[in-house]
Amino acid sequence: MSRSPVSPQPYWNPYLVGALLGLVLLASYLVAGRGLGATGAFSSLAAWIADGVSPAQAAANPVHARYLASGSPLTAWLIFLLIGAFAGAALSGWLAGRTRLMIEKGPHISGGTRIATAVAGGAIAGVGAKIAMGCTSGQALTGGAILNAGSLAFMGSVFAAAYAVAWLLKKEWL
Amino acid sequence: MFPLSSTIEMSAGLEHLAAILLGFGFGFALERAGFGSARKLTAVFYFYDMAVVKVMFTAIVTAMAGLFVLSTLGVLDLAELYVEPTSWAGAIVGGLVFGTGFVIGGYCPGTSVAACATGRLDGFAFLGGMLGGVYLFAELFPGVDAWVRGTAIGEVTLPAVTGLSMGWWVLIFIGILGAASWGMGLAERRFAGLKPEP
Question: A3, A133, B103, B145: which one has the fewest Cβ atoms less than 10 Å from its Cβ?
């Protein structure tokens, strides 16, 4: 008997998953009157940390203050959305045999380098999402579906920068 | 009738339950698409696997068509839906910075959650970096935040700007998706050689 590990199942057809994701987005609009999002949860978490460090300074900071205005930032809608997203992704990955502790990286960089690029990229994306007042979920998907012109400009801008930078970063991924 | 948030009074507990259920579908779909993997996500930037664009575009068109049909049937009031105010400067500058972070970090905020949920350590690193970036933005650049919000000009949608109704835009987007899926198939075959070893 072969002792090779169980190979993970293939991903679903992208157009099929896209339609499924679109229906989830539509359901969000129908139930909550708003679409999906992610960045706001990070903003709430950041405000909660700032409030823990110094309540007075957090309240005086105009960015944190927005997320402290209506009760504990940990009860924000998007925090619950991301808790659900974690559970949904965990179930999907586990059912498909894709869950394991590993580092996703290109073949020519070390694990340590990859962790560093992930932290740096995350920080840059965080700043970008704050400037754009949303990310690929809250702006591109959610705004795109309702034909929000700013969201469509954001999406074009994201892909323009990403394609340009990807050209310089072939070493990281290829 | 819809959105329910405008027609019925939801308790906080019910709202949170709805958020968890919607999030569950969101995360499940992201992982099924392969978006818990930074390599699958960044493949789109080297053209050998265009799944990111296929999924995003199909999701947008599906939701858009649903919103249009339901509002035409009179069961959904589009005016009750939240539309983020447009700031051209914020969208473009923020988009350029975000896109740079996306390709360096390998994830976007939502997909990094899917990566963490399937054990990807670089997903946790991205998540930590993202939280740090958002925290530092609030601490260091409240002026940038005020500037972006100051340049917001309210709700700007394509039907409002162009005078072309939402139904036409749905048809146009379906047409673009059809043409793009043909083009993406060509690109994937042309750049298949770029795919790195597993």
Answer: A3
Phi, psi of B4 (to 5 degrees): -60, -30
- Chains A and B form CB pairs within 8 A to the count of 529
- A61/B contact by beta carbon, under 8 A: yes
Q: For residue range A22-40, list pLDDT tens digits in order.
A: 999 999 999 999 999 999 9
Q: What is the pLDDT of residues B8-46, one digit of tens each?
A: 998 999 999 999 999 999 999 999 999 999 999 999 999
Could you tell me how far CA B96 lies from the centroid of its own chain? 15
- In this predicted structure, what is the pLDDT of residue A2? 46
Give me the interface pTM, i.e. the ipTM: 0.97
Q: Decide if A152 touches B, using CB distance below 8 A.
A: yes
d(CA B153, CA B148): 10
Instruction: Dig out the tokens for A124 from the structure.
Output: 């840059």
Separation CA A56–CA A54 (nearest Å): 5
Give the number of other CB atoms < 10 A from CB of residue B79: 9
